[in-house]
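JOB MANIFEST
job_type = single_chain_structure
chain_count = 1
residues = 247
[input]
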Amino acid sequence: MFYDMVVHTKSSIGENELSEVVEMARKLGLSGICVPMYYTSLKDLKEYVNSLPHYDDIDIVSGVIVKADRPQDINNIVSMVRQKIEIVIVHGSSYEVNRVACENSKVDILAHPELNRNDSGLDHICVKSAAENNVAIEINFREILESSGILRVKTMKKIMKNIELCKNYKTPIITTSSAVSKWNMRSGRELASIAHLVGLPIVDAIDTVSTIPLQIVEENRKKLQGKKIGDVEVINDGQTENTPSDA
């Protein structure tokens, strides 16, 4: 099962209707896609969640991208949306924002921490915190695709540095197309090949588009459905089961 955890539609910054994206996902053999919206208000978020259709063959995952300049704003918004959405993504930017995202266990994914930076946007403090809080670091295919020449080389070097840090601390990594056009979407194996190209062993690269995203989705759905509270999982009426902490 392959999941692309960031595919943009017209509800965010994309060019396509959701139905067009879903049809492309089918052609590419994807099992699921997350089609996040940028956070604007709780009202808009509720309308977005209620508008998402159900398909028998493609898992549509709800998600929100939190973008703010101030770290305190990131934490405030994340706290408000966590119980209303399946995937919480923080838009990487300044080091301060990247670090606060890594330190917040309510965040699922830190997107492109190196974007528009001269450095990789992360250090060992951030990555260690991300591992402790189970925050996945994104490999963003669109960032590589839309760069060229020396800029592409620099972008890939920054991503490779972050991957090495993540490998040292066993921090989860997610590879996404971050496609704004259906033509920029890629199959799971193609996305995995990008992760392999920038430094991950092939088995780990495949995990970035299969095992890791699926685990995040399943865990969050259990929590939203009241089947899991903290580290305690409800297995049936009146019984609970302790599960290992993910920090």
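[summary]
The chain has a mean pLDDT of 93.
Residues 128 and 168 are 9 Å apart (CA to CA).
exit_status = 0
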